[in-house]
Design a protein that fits this description.
The protein is mostly helical. About 45% of the residues lie in helices and about 5% in strands.
């Protein structure tokens, strides 16, 4: 019996040390090296924090790019999706209302051209990113409202497009808050 208990206690002690001390310290060290020092990447304009890069924002002004809808009204304390299936009548009504609203604010856009992420909430309800296609479809509206050239907005969208990690992992995406901060810097 002593043959099994002593090695088991040693192994238990070693695993407690690794799992409850060394691993958390390693993760904390990695977080300190990340943007924001493990507290999240805050975005500032004129020294004032305007948001977090990893949390979606609600832009209601037509002169800005809009991001994904949120099932939790952009409340980071309650991150979740809607949990409604694609055949749920309430879900379908919500999506249809978002499509109708988008079409009203973006005349000339056909329903089939609207990227899905502009009318469906993400799994977290806080997705801060959209695809380049979702940004490009909004260029005409923003150019008209801000009296800017569409070509200048296209260059801005292309500049703000983040490529997949190592060119392999993920998709091209644009952080909507960062895009709108840069949009405000353009001359009107």
């Amino acid at each position: 019996m002593k043959t099994y208990i002593i090695p088991s206690l040693k192994l238990t002690g070693l695993l407690i040390l690794i799992c409850s001390a060394l691993y958390p310290l390693l993760i904390a060290g990695i977080a300190k090296a990340a943007p924001g020092g493990g507290k999240g990447e805050t975005l500032e304009v004129n020294g004032k924090v305007v948001g977090y890069a990893a949390i979606g924002q609600n832009f209601t002004d037509e002169a800005y790019f809009i991001g994904r809808p949120s099932a939790v009204d952009y409340n980071a304390a309650g991150s979740c999706g809607s949990n409604k299936g694609a055949s749920n009548p309430d879900y379908l009504a919500s999506v249809q209302a978002r499509i109708d609203t988008f079409l009203v604010h973006n005349p000339g856009v056909d329903r089939s051209q609207i990227p899905a992420e502009l009318v469906t909430a993400s799994g977290s309800g806080l997705d801060p990113d959209i695809t380049p296609a979702a940004a490009k479809i909004q260029i005409k509206r923003i150019a008209k409202l801000r009296h800017l050239e569409e070509a200048d907005l296209l260059k801005l969208v292309e500049k703000q497009t983040e490529k997949p990690l190592l060119g392999l992992f993920g998709v091209e995406k644009i952080n909507v808050l960062k895009l709108n901060i840069e949009l405000n810097k353009l001359k009107q």
